[in-house]
């Protein structure tokens, strides 16, 4: 029995051994595969972190955008204040990121903290200023002198034989001036050192072009847009003409590469302006026209906005064109329309405010009078309305999004909106 039991036990042991399936020996991973997977995990972790930071930044950006777009400031405090020498003060103009102050006895360049960078003395009876890029000019209307400046100071003085009627300057310092004698008008051109260029346009009221009412040089100085008045069937009509002073314009009389009469039948064009080297605009008594000289030999009228109401003011920058007209609908007596350079409407807003000046600075429209101002953004929303305790001559954006530079004949202040 014992032998039989031993045999049975041995058989059972063998059966158990057959039922046991040995586990395969663990295989070692290749070291390069381990490194690759580790790097992949690190990259995924970094990607998640970047995505989280990106979402946070986008949320903050949207929040700031909404804040600056919709928030209306109700007060201000003065960041700094500086007294200005009044003299025979005439006006201020934005120039090279700062301010050009001009008067009958001189001009000065003032930075955005009220410091005079340079001063130029002269004597003029009726000074008028023009600016383009980093160049500016002050001309004596009905006089014979034009002072030309860049941001570092005077670059030259042009002296004319005939009285000056109008002047415009390019971003390279080339000056075009309308001069008048007893029988005709001329457009002369000057270098930034004041020397006369060998280019001249003669203009007569009953001539082919007409009498020059206003002119504007393109920033690069190669194009000029002119507003002209001419006689047709005994009536005075308006005309817009384009002159080209590059090589391609030499082949045409007076370098006129384009003229537009039909849009201004029975109306006069009072002002023209080059916004940049391609886009320009013309303001008539009943319309605003938008032009393109993308094809330099064939200027194009992109759009003419007919204005049935009385145009009270026009203003512009290198990016926007604005007009203020009498409002015939609703309680507010005025309406402000702002356009892109191609004539598309940016916004239209009715308002009630006794302004004397209207400017565009960056993304803001600034309306102001001698002791108050209103600031609108390019959505037409009122961002700030305030009054001041000193005379105001010019208001522009300050160094930061919530600051303004408020300048008068005797004071300059930077205010922080609250």
Could you name the key traits of this structure?
membrane, transmembrane helix, transmembrane, 14% helix, 32 strands, DUF5711, 4-stranded antiparallel beta sheet, 418 residues, WD40 repeat domain-containing protein
Give an overview of the whole structure:
Pfam families: DUF5711. InterPro entries: DUF5711. This is WD40 repeat domain-containing protein. Keywords: Membrane, Transmembrane, Transmembrane helix. The protein contains 2 helices and 32 strands. By secondary structure, the protein is mainly beta. The longest helix is centred in the first third of the chain and has 40 residues, at 31-70. The radius of gyration is 35 Å and the shape is elongated. The protein starts with a helix and ends with a strand.
Give the helices and strands, then pairings.
Elements: H1 2-19, H2 31-70, E1 76-83, E2 89-95, E3 98-103, E4 106-110, E5 116-121, E6 127-132, E7 135-140, E8 145-150, E9 153-159, E10 164-169, E11 175-180, E12 185-190, E13 196-203, E14 211-217, E15 223-232, E16 235-244, E17 256-260, E18 269-274, E19 279-284, E20 287-292, E21 300-306, E22 311-316, E23 321-326, E24 334-339, E25 345-351, E26 357-361, E27 364-368, E28 372-377, E29 382-387, E30 394-397, E31 403-407, E32 411-417
Antiparallel strand pairs: 1-32, 2-3, 3-4, 4-5, 6-7, 7-8, 8-9, 10-11, 11-12, 12-13, 14-15, 15-16, 16-17, 18-19, 19-20, 20-21, 22-23, 23-24, 24-25, 26-27, 27-28, 28-29, 30-31, 31-32
């Amino acid at each position: 029995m014992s032998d039989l039991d031993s045999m049975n036990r041995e058989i059972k042991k063998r059966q158990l051994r057959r039922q046991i399936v040995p586990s395969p020996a663990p295989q070692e991973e290749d070291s390069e595969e381990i490194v690759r997977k580790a790097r992949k995990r690190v990259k995924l972790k970094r990607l998640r972190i970047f995505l989280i930071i990106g979402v946070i930044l986008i949320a903050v950006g949207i929040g700031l955008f909404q804040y600056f777009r919709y928030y209306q400031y109700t007060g201000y405090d003065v960041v700094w204040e500086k007294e200005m020498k009044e003299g025979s003060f005439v006006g201020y103009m934005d120039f090279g990121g700062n301010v050009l102050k001009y008067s009958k006895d001189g001009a000065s360049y003032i930075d955005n903290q009220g410091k005079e960078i340079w001063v130029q003395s002269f004597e003029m009876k009726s000074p008028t200023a023009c600016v383009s890029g980093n160049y500016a000019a002050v001309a004596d209307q009905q006089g014979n002198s034009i002072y030309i400046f860049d941001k570092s100071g005077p670059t030259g003085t042009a002296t004319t034989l005939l009285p000056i009627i109008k002047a415009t300057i390019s971003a390279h310092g080339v000056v075009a001036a309308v001069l008048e004698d007893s029988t005709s008008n001329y457009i002369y051109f000057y270098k930034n050192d004041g020397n006369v260029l060998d280019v001249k346009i003669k203009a007569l009221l009953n001539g082919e072009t007409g009498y020059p009412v206003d002119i504007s040089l393109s920033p690069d100085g190669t194009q000029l847009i002119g507003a002209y008045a001419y006689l047709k069937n005994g009536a005075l009509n308006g005309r817009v003409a384009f002159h080209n002073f590059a090589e391609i314009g030499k082949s045409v009389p007076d370098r006129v590469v384009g003229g537009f009469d039909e849009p201004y039948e029975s109306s006069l064009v009072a002002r023209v302006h080059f916004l940049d080297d391609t886009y320009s605009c013309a303001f008539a008594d009943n319309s605003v026209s938008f032009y393109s000289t993308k094809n330099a030999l064939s200027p194009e009228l992109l759009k003419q906005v007919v204005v049935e109401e009385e145009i009270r003011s026009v203003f512009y920058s290198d990016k926007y064109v604005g007009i203020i007209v009498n409002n015939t609908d609703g309680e507010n007596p005025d309406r402000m329309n702002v356009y892109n350079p191609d004539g598309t409407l940016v916004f239209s807003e009715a308002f009630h405010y006794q302004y004397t000046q209207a400017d565009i600075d960056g993304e803001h429209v600034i309306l102001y009078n001698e002791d108050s101002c209103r600031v609108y953004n390019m959505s037409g929303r009122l961002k700030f309305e305030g009054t001041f305790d000193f005379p105001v001559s010019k208001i522009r954006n300050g160094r930061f999004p919530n600051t303004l530079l408020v300048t008068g004949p005797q004071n300059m202040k930077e205010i922080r909106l609250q």
